[in-house]
Amino acid sequence: MSSENKGKWWPLVAVCLGNFMLLIDVTIVVTALPRMAEDLDAGLTDLQWVMDAYALALAALLMAAGAAGDILGRRRVYVLGLAGFAVSSLACALAPDARTLIAARAVQGLAAAAMFATNAPLLAAAYQGRDRGVAFGVWGAVSGAASALGVLLGGVLTQYLEWPAIFLVNLPFSALTIALTWRWIAESRGDGGARVDWPGTVAFTLTAGALTYGLIRGGEESWTDGVTLASFVVAALALAAFVVVERRSAHPLLDLRLMRQPSFAALMVAGMVLTASAFAHYAFTMLWLQDVQHLSPVRAGLAVVPMAAAAFVVAGVGGRLLQRVPPWAAVSGGLLLIGAGALAQTAISADSSWTVLVPGLVLTGVGVGIAIPVLVSAALAAAPPERAGMASGAVNTFRQLGFALGVAVLGTLFADRVATAAGPPAAAFAAGLDRVYLVAGLAAVCAALLVAAVAMASRPAGRRSAAAAPPRRTRVPAG
């Protein structure tokens, strides 16, 4: 075997390592939250921000990072992201208090955006033909594995090495990935006319941040609190500014004409709700498992693995079968199963053991395994070919934004119900989770019906709906 063939798959290794790290850090903190709360004297609001700071920064800067990679070089931006990810991970591990940890998590999310926005284009530039299909298949499988292993790995590291280890483990892997990237990945750039839409990026970031802050503070203080109301006003003004900026920009962060297409807009809503309904309640479930059920971090992580395992298996086994199903139908059907799974978990009560969650977790996992792999394909089918890159970035942005907003909304509902519920702590926790699962389930069902209704409504127009069009032949992973 020639030295060229021996090194053929090293670019794939470098990209997959970075992708695994950034995705696993979305959920790896979940199992460690109870220990963080104890060590850092952190309340529920602080714990919400530990998760949301990362997800918000990742969502807000993802599309801008993609444009920066096209201009400055994707390998350069990817390596800068890896270096920033390592430094911010060290800052997270050494954080003396909750505020420092939250700030470090925001920087970590910024670095993750640089990595996430460039890893798929780097793969596309490194491989052609059949090798490209294999590379993206492995990339997608690694993305699924990150979701499956995040909560469990967080439990193992927290139980045996304490919670800072969930961040310190990123350091050697970041260094290895940087070395592999410089050695095996060639530099690539995008369209020479690309520009970073900084005004749009600032407006979008301010909109998402102010809205999330208002939702969390409203649940903690009061919905009529001055700061809460001011946050919502800032979010509304920033959103208006974003619309104005994007309509006038020659290189917009998001072409708002895409959002005028009902099929595309419905899929963006679906991406947000999917992530919020399937994953945002993990944190509150983990608090119940460890604080009420008294499970160790490892056992708590194992308790929710059925969901991720089901998603991984269904996505792998059902990939070929789903190619025969219109993408909108797979997204809608997956959301219905996610909703059913969340509603099944409302069976929880003060006397329940952790096993009461298993049927609902499995149903949710099946729904995730069906919907997520085709979500990007559905969005691409609903967008013009020349906007394929923007459509793909928008899907990932709205998914991460859904997680951040989901944690804020569900956390508010959870805290309010726990505070007002009568009875012992176990009953209060169960009541809080019951409300969280109910709202998550209903939201997923409504989003499923929205996607189906939009697709059906477009059919009588005499042309096939863009959302109902078959997937493109070019494989675009759903990460």
Question: What's the topology here?
Answer:
Elements: H1 3-6, H2 10-27, H3 33-40, H4 44-72, H5 74-93, H6 98-126, H7 129-161, H8 165-168, H9 170-184, H10 198-220, H11 226-248, H12 256-259, H13 262-279, H14 282-292, H15 297-317, H16 319-322, H17 327-344, H18 358-382, H19 388-420, H20 425-458
Protein described:
This protein has 479 residues and is mainly alpha-helical. The protein contains 20 helices and no strands. The longest helix is centred in the last third of the chain and has 34 residues, at 425-458. It is globular, with a radius of gyration of 21 Å.
Report a brief summary of the structure.
With 479 residues, the chain is an all-alpha fold. It is built from 20 helices and no strands. The two termini are 33 Å apart.
Specify the biggest β-sheet. none
Which class do the helix and strand fractions yield? mainly alpha
Low-confidence stretches: 461-479
How many DSSP helices?
20
What order do the helices and strands follow? Answer: HHHHHHHHHHHHHHHHHHHH
If you compute it from the alpha carbons, what radius of gyration comes out, rounded to the nearest whole angstrom?
A: 21 Å
Mean pLDDT: 85
What would the principal axes of the Cα set say about the shape? globular
The percentage helix is over 70%
Distance between the termini: 33 Å
> What percentage of the residues does DSSP assign to strands (E)?
under 5%
Short key terms for the protein model shown above:
mainly alpha; disordered C terminus; 20 helices; 479 residues; 78% helix; globular
